[in-house]
Structure prediction request, 201 residues.
Amino acid sequence: MNLRDAAAIHPFPGIAQLEWLAGQMRGAAVRESTKCLSQLAGLFQDQSAYQASDPQSIVYRVQWCEPVSQGTEGGLFWGVTHIEPGRVGEEYFMTHGHFHQERDRSEFYGCVKGEGILLLKNERQSWHESMRAGSLHYIPGLAAHRVINTGDVPLVFWACWPSDAGHDYGPITTDGLGLRVLRGDTGPCVVAVPVPARDTQ
Ligand code: PAN
Ligand code: ZN
Prediction:
């Protein structure tokens, strides 16, 4: 469906009530998903610590709304993510991380509360940005993105992304982002990790 057809069917009245500082969305159109440790297999560095963790531990929760259907060109989605404080071994709780299926689609993140790190990776490099209350982050097209909660309280951030972006989780599952965030002696440390070699044949 294109945007003109979508607008003709549904005139987009107020689609949700936001509690900005709590990072909550309310309304019939609001969707919600929860990720627990068992759904993040293979992402954490310390496999024995992962096996020893409670698989039912909630790592993060996302609320969002889709005023147009997924894949609509020119539309936008809006959502909020809460990442719990916690670690698997020395590695902090984090989102799965993804590229957008349509690789050139960009996104905004705006942090409400908590402390964390946004990891990004494109074809040339990996980099990171600090997240704290009030920080705004522009995730450029072609960049994979993952958020890590390095604090003792939930990390909460709003997000806005194109309705035709889609999510591709596969490359992050196999290759990661080239960086990990681990607890160090003096606080969180961003460490480089090798990206697995690929057979280019
Ligand atoms: C966000 C993320 C959300 C959860 O809304 O989807 O923070 O992270 P994962 O999708 O990596 O599990 C976003 O980036 N949307 O495009
Ligand atoms: Zn995204």
Observations:
- The pocket of zinc ion (ligand 2) is lined by residues 98, 100, 107, 145, 161 (CB under 6 Å).
